[in-house]
## 1
Amino acid sequence: MKRTKMYSLLWLPVVLCLFSSCAKKEAEIPVTTKSEKALELYKEASDAMEDVYIPEAMDLLIQALEEDPDFFMAAYGLATMNFYFGNDEEFKKYAEQAVASEAALSEGEEIMRKMLQKLLEDQDADITDLGNQLVELYPEDPIAYNQLAFAQMMNDDYEGVVETLMKTLEITEDSAGIYNSLGYAYMKMGQFDDARSVFDKYIEMEPDLPNPYDSKGDYYMKIEDYVNAYESYMKAYRIDSSWSHNKALRAKELQDTILAE
């Protein structure tokens, strides 16, 4: 999992699931846009996010906003991703654009707008109540649960995060990203056997993507198994050479240091 902010180690997969279309259609938070082209670009961004190709997804979201500057969910996605990467100016730019949207937003989007408003005022704001409101309003939509999990994570409530993600598994068809999120949550709780189990499930479900092996490499690094960390990162690298090479070199360096002692 590529990351910068420490607390975001868990949050990135949760953010990625924001774009997933895995809920039953009638149960989803409605996505409001006046532009069919913008919606098409948003769906393409969703596909890229599900495979954890973040730069491509963000570029597609920017294109979607160019088609419809009031496209709330596109601006929301860019705001949250920039929040993750610690790009405060870009977070503020897109969060303000989302909050200022003049579109006739759905009730769920209005709640998410309030989330951004609170984060603009204070990036450490407690938005758990708003996450709970989303879940109550859309109990069959994984996006609602992902927002609640994000809020719980910001409060270091990792038991709550796990409980929320487990509920998400009950209602989602595309669950690979949820297992990824669970793995990082379990690591934060020190439950490494559980983390290994769900990362293995993630690999089983998406064996041809680099991110599952990158995530498993993070697990091995956490337990200081640098040999297996190197191998896992290199598996990701062999699938896509833009992935994990520096992490693999770092794992090898640490293992060589141990052997030299």
## 2
Amino acid sequence: VRKSMVLLKNGKSMNKPLLPLDKNASKILVAGTHSDNIGYQCGGWTLEWQGLSGNSTIGTTIIEAIKLVVSPSTKVVYKKNPDVDYVKGQGFSYAIVVVGEPPYAEYFGDNLNLTIPLGGGDTIKNICGSLKCLVILISGRPLVIKPYLPLVDAFVAAWLPGTEGQGVTDVIFGDYGFQGKLPRTWFKSV
């Protein structure tokens, strides 16, 4: 997991990177459909042909791994898709937004426009326009991210990390560096 993650953006400017994240932040918002769902982390061809949603597989979700790695004094708040007013009024140090595709295999995964499904785009807009945020994309392929890049401080392609949410946190909190590379430039549109 650590070796496959690709850093797509780090900072709204070169001089102000967001990553690695601060383990001693006072309060962190974790949001998105994929932050607490091992089935989504695993993708298709797992327990069933099309994969499963939920935590029926033994492992560590990304939010569980976040709670394990941050300071005991850091408050980690989970909200699947908070609205803008909630985000602005809570005093969060930063947000980690985990979005992506549901599990699929073969033609069931056909997506003609390759957009981020399951309300992921709305979650990014609600949070990242108001707060420093890292977006982690869980997918088996590149998806269109260009509309969201101006809003986010950092963007990471974690692909399908399987049962090891800890591998994701090892990299975003700086215990290990990013090593993943793309064989070609990430597309801007479809």
## 3
Amino acid sequence: MREILTLQARYNQFANDNMLKVLETLSPSDLQKDVGVYYTSIIGTFIHILEADIAILLGIINSYAPNPLDTKPLQDALASGLQNKSFESLITLRRQADRLIIDLVDSIADFSAVRELSFPGISFKKSIAQYFLSILNHGTHHRGQIAAILDIMNVPNDFAGMLGM
């Protein structure tokens, strides 16, 4: 399982890096434009992915590691509100999160261990592996939304192919 999760985490890092190269070419107004998606804009969707990775993987799931990683700077950034950060700061946080997620996969001893994860109104009892797969795939889903927005805007993009790694 570690090999699969490491591959997925490295893919997310690769896809995020390539997505950022495209997003860095856009104007602030293009990043923030309301395009009618659930999280409103490219930047809103990007922030949502980052929030989930920091809160769930680097927060809750990290607490299941035998020796949890130091994610305090990312947790502090999340607590202060990512919407208030500059795009440059968000890029730095994204890259830090991607490195830490790979380190977190390496630090988990037992991916089959079942843990409870609760959100307001819903709880899950799943293996640590299933939580990892769920959140790593969550990023893939939302990067696909960003790619579709870029397609509609006629912005060339091809950052999602795992075989290009």
